[in-house]
Structure formats: C-alpha cells, structure tokens
Amino acid sequence: MADPTILLLMYFILPLWLLAGFADWICHRASHIETATGAKESLIHLLMFAEVGIPLLAGIFLEINALIISVMIAAFFVHEATALWDVSYATTAREVTPIEQHVHSFLEMIPLMAIVCVVSLHWQQFLALFGLGSQAPRFDLTWKAQPLPIGYVAALMTMIVIFEFLPYLEELVRGLVANRGKLVPPKAK
After folding, report:
1. Is residue 111 part of a domain?
2. Is the pLDDT confidence value at 1 over 80?
3. Domain containing 175: what range?
4. What is the model's pTM?
5. pLDDT category of residue 3 using cuts at 50, 70 and 90
6. Percentage helix, strand, coil, to 5, in the chain?
7. Residue 5 lies inside a defined structural domain of this protein
8. Is residue 15 part of a domain?
9. Transmembrane segments in this chain: where (predicted)?
10. In terms of DSSP H, where are the helices of 91-137?
C-alpha cells in the first residue's frame, strides 16, 4: 500500500472517474436528455458503466494477473466503441456542449490511466501475455492475498452507487417516464 502508483489509483484516478461521471450526468440533465434522446441513451450509459465496472471490480477484489489485465484491456476497447456509439447517437437529437465533450475526454482516458498503472504494477504478467518476461501468464481467478482496506472499499462502493449508478438509473427512469415507457422519444427518430 506504500507504492505511489497504488495510492494514485486509489486516491486520484478513481475519485477523478467518479467526479467526471457525475459531471457527465449533470451535463445530460442540463441538456434534457429525457426528451431529446431518451432512455436509449441512458441504457448506453449504463452499458458503459458496466464496461468500466467489471474490470474495476476485478482490480479491487482479485489478484492481478494476465487474465485480469486482458479483461481490462478488452473492456477499454469495448468501452471506447460504445462511447463512439453513444456520442454518434446523442448528437442526432441534442447538443453535446463543449463542456460535456471535455468531460467525455476524461471518461475515456481515466480507464486508460488506470490500466497503465495496473500494468506498471504487474509488469511481468503484462509481458507474459505476449510470451515475454520471466513469468508464465496466469489466467486464474483468485481473491487478493492482501485485500484493499475494507473501509476504503466500502467508501468507494458507496460513492459509486451514490454518484454513478443511482444518477444514471434516475436518468433512465426519467427518460422512460417522459416518453411513456418508450426508449426513443419522437424527436430522436
């Protein structure tokens, strides 16, 4: 826990991700997403939440090895493709302001920053993915031998629920209510 890279991940990168995600929700609310692009865009946002959440949970609870690094890298590329789909759809029916675009740049690069930190901490397993280095790649799922502090994990999970999951769930409900259960408002068609 004394490694500066771990501390950067825990106390800078993850809080920055939470802040950017909440700022994005505020931008969506300001643009009246519920009547512009509706619940469809909110579902895309929840999909991106899952695409980042799965590797995040793996990094928090599981030993980092070649499998976890592979999942993180694959999820990053899937998240990037989904982000492109999201903005392509959003711009058909609502203005994506420069502030929201700037927030998106953070949301796209923060997972990459996290992966770079994880790779630097587990360099031999990263190299092992390519048949290099001194270790064989490990592809097992095992709990961390030295888990993160329970207080930190509980606080982080609470903040994720409060500042990410619940706001985006509220956005989805708002979109469904505004369009009487339809995913796409008439304006977006």
Report:
1. yes
2. no
3. 20-29+37-137+146-183
4. 0.94
5. very high
6. 75, 0, 25
7. no
8. no
9. 6-23, 67-85, 106-130, 150-169
10. 98-121, 123-128
pLDDT of res. 189: 66
Is residue 105 packed enough to be buried (19+ CB in 10 Å), middle (13-18) or exposed (0-12)?
Answer: exposed
Q: Is 51 inside any structural domain? A: yes
pLDDT digits (tens, 9 = 90+) for 35-74: 999 999 999 999 999 999 999 999 999 999 999 999 999 9
- Give the separation between CA 51 and CA 78, rounded to whole angstroms: 7
- Tokens at 141, concatenated: 């799922």
Show Cβ contacts of residue 72 under 8 Å, excluding neighbours closer than 6 positions: 55, 58, 59, 111, 114, 115, 118
Query: Tokens 């989805």 belong to which residue?
Result: 172
Tokens 């492109």 belong to which residue? 84
